[in-house]
Design brief:
Length: 168
């Protein structure tokens, strides 16, 4: 897989049984010193709501002695060719503002990229990481976006292996 020039090399990748790229991991520079130490998962979709959730998590993490911030960007299913060509770029652009906010506060991060249904992918990743909490933005801008966010949040409530923090 060739990475677009403005996306750094991934620290890891996951492929399905057919060899299609379905997940990526990127680390900040410097990387998380202890990624398993009180991991928080921040769902990021590029919206102002997600950015407010990230800002809240940054404030909380700053008050703790240990907190590893993991970002997750869930992208819709792509074909094998499209995933190889676009998955990293889409996620990198979707998470740009959140990563910049973390970098500005000197907060290291790990970005996880997955394809599929948002709530299921977020819950599965939280379980794999042993997350203490999942943080998501809760307020949509319009009726359609509000319904979508509510559906993801509602599904997460039922799937979450840990507490869910919905930031207004």
């Amino acid at each position: 897989m060739s990475q677009p020039s403005d996306v750094p090399a991934a620290a890891g990748c996951e492929r399905d049984a057919d060899g299609r790229l379905v997940g990526l991991v990127f680390d900040s520079a410097p990387p998380l010193p202890a990624p398993n130490d009180n991991p928080w998962l921040l769902a990021v979709d590029g919206s102002d709501n997600a950015l407010r959730a990230v800002a809240h998590a940054v404030r909380q993490a700053g008050a703790m002695t240990a907190c590893a911030l993991h970002l997750v960007s869930v992208q819709p299913w792509l074909s094998r060719e499209a995933a190889a060509a676009e998955l990293a770029l889409r996620a990198w652009h979707t998470t740009a503002r959140a990563r910049s906010l973390l970098d500005a506060h000197g907060q290291p991060w790990r970005l996880h990229v997955a394809m599929g249904e948002a709530a299921e992918q977020i819950a599965a990743l939280a379980a794999r990481l042993g997350c203490s909490v999942i943080v998501i933005g809760g307020r949509g801008l319009g009726f359609g976006e509000s319904l979508l966010r509510a559906a993801v949040a509602n599904k997460l409530v039922h799937l979450c292996p840990c507490p869910l923090l919905l930031v207004p």
